[in-house]
């Protein structure tokens, strides 16, 4: 399956409206939905935050120039919320999955979908 198919499948669930897959280092985009493009400083800060979340804890999580309230930041998952929408970022062995859920979607429903894809990618070596 192509990387683009993974982002398309995330959006097709109806629980996520934007998705992207970046290299683990955050230095290249592997796939993205039409409406999710992270600026270089945003993906760099996100990639670094999995190992040292102090930067996004102090400065906030910024995605597409929007500041999200940080809900969780550890070596696997970073979650953020802005009003009724949210961001889910999950790091695998080789990639970072980033997904956005819109207002009206429960955070837990969206999170489960992204975390399950991450589990699958980890299980197949990615």
Automatic annotation (TrEMBL):
Belongs to the profilin family. One of its GO terms (molecular function) is proline-rich region binding. Occurs in many kinds of cells as a complex with monomeric actin in a 1:1 ratio. GO terms for cellular component: cell cortex; cytoskeleton; cytosol. SMART domains: PROF. Pfam families: Profilin. Keywords: Actin-binding, Cytoplasm, Cytoskeleton. Its main location: cytoplasm. The keyword RNA-binding does not apply. Binds to actin and affects the structure of the cytoskeleton. At high concentrations, profilin prevents the polymerization of actin, whereas it enhances it at low concentrations. GO terms for biological process: mitotic actomyosin contractile ring assembly; positive regulation of formin-nucleated actin cable assembly. It is found in: Cytoplasm, Cytoskeleton. This is Profilin. InterPro entries: PFN (IPR048278), PFN_euk (IPR005455), PFN_sf (IPR036140), Profilin_CS (IPR027310). SUPFAM superfamilies: Profilin (actin-binding protein) (SSF55770).
């Amino acid at each position: 399956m192509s990387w683009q198919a993974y982002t398309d499948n995330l959006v097709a669930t109806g629980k996520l409206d934007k998705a992207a897959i970046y290299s683990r280092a955050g230095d290249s985009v592997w796939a993205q939905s039409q409406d999710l493009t992270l600026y270089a400083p945003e993906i760099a800060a996100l990639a670094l935050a999995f190992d040292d979340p102090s930067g996004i804890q102090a400065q906030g999580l910024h995605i597409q120039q929007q500041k999200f309230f940080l809900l969780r930041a550890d070596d696997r998952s970073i979650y953020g919320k802005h009003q009724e929408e949210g961001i889910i970022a999950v790091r695998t062995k080789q990639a970072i999955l980033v997904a956005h859920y819109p207002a009206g979607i429960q955070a837990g429903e969206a999170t489960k979908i992204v975390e399950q894809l991450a589990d699958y990618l980890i299980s197949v070596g990615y």
